[in-house]
Design brief:
By secondary structure, the chain is an alpha+beta fold. It has one domain (about 25-170). The chain has four helices and 14 strands. It has helices at about 1-20, 25-30, 35-40, 85-90; strands at about 35, 45-50, 55-65, 70-80, 95, 100-105, 105-110, 110-120, 120-125, 130-135, 140, 150-155, 160-165, 165-170. Keywords: Signal.
Length: about 170
C-alpha cells in the first residue's frame, strides 16, 4: 500500500511540474495557443488586399492565436510601399479575426482589418477600405526583453497582447 501511495505522489508531482512548465501562451483563454511566425506561413497569405492595392505580408513579423474551438486570429506586418503616407501611417499590419473580440474595451467583429500603432500612444483599427473603425489607447512595456516589429503573446491577466516593438494593446475573446 505504501509503495502505491509513493507512486501516486510521484506521478502527481511529475504532472504538476509538467503543467507548470507549459507556457502561459498555451494556457491563455481556455487552452488557446499563440502561433509563431513559422506556423503562420501555412495560414497567412503572401499578399493581401487593402484600400485598392495588394501588399506583401512580412511573415517573419507575424503572429496569431488558435482557440480551442479551432478559430483563429492572425496578424502580419505588411509592406506599405505604394500607399500614401496617410494610409501607411495607420496601416502597419493586416489583422484577421474569425471571432468577435474585445480590443482595449471596444468590440471588434469578425473580419479583416488594417491595424497600426500611431501617434499619441494610440492603436487604430481600420476596415479594408482604410476607414477608421476605432482607436484605443496603447501601452508601453519597458520590461519586454526582445521587442520585435510585431508579435502576439499571452497577457498575464488573461487574453493576449499584440506588440509593435514595446507598444502593445490587449485583446480578448
Amino acid at each position: 500500500m505504501r509503495k502505491g501511495l509513493t507512486v501516486s505522489i510521484a506521478i502527481s508531482v511529475l504532472l504538476a511540474a509538467v503543467v507548470a512548465t507549459v507556457p502561459a501562451a498555451v494556457r491563455a483563454q481556455g487552452n488557446a495557443t499563440v502561433l509563431k511566425p513559422a506556423e503562420m506561413e501555412k495560414l497567412m497569405p503572401a499578399t493581401v488586399f487593402y484600400r485598392g492595392q495588394t501588399a506583401t505580408t512580412q511573415l517573419r513579423n507575424s503572429g496569431g492565436v488558435k482557440f480551442a474551438d479551432g478559430f483563429f486570429i492572425l496578424a502580419s506586418d505588411v509592406d506599405t510601399s505604394g500607399y500614401s503616407s496617410a494610409i501607411a501611417t495607420k496601416y502597419q499590419a493586416y489583422f484577421i479575426t474569425e471571432v468577435p473580440i474585445q480590443v482595449g474595451g471596444k468590440k471588434l467583429g469578425t473580419g479583416v482589418y488594417g491595424i497600426g500603432f500611431i501617434a499619441d500612444n494610440k492603436f487604430v483599427v481600420t476596415d479594408v477600405g482604410a476607414h477608421e473603425v476605432f482607436a484605443v489607447d496603447s501601452a508601453t512595456d519597458a520590461n519586454l526583453k526582445l521587442p520585435r516589429p510585431l508579435q502576439i503573446v499571452a497577457d498575464p491577466s488573461g487574453g493576449f497582447r499584440i506588440y509593435a516593438g514595446r507598444r502593445y494593446i490587449v485583446f480578448s475573446r
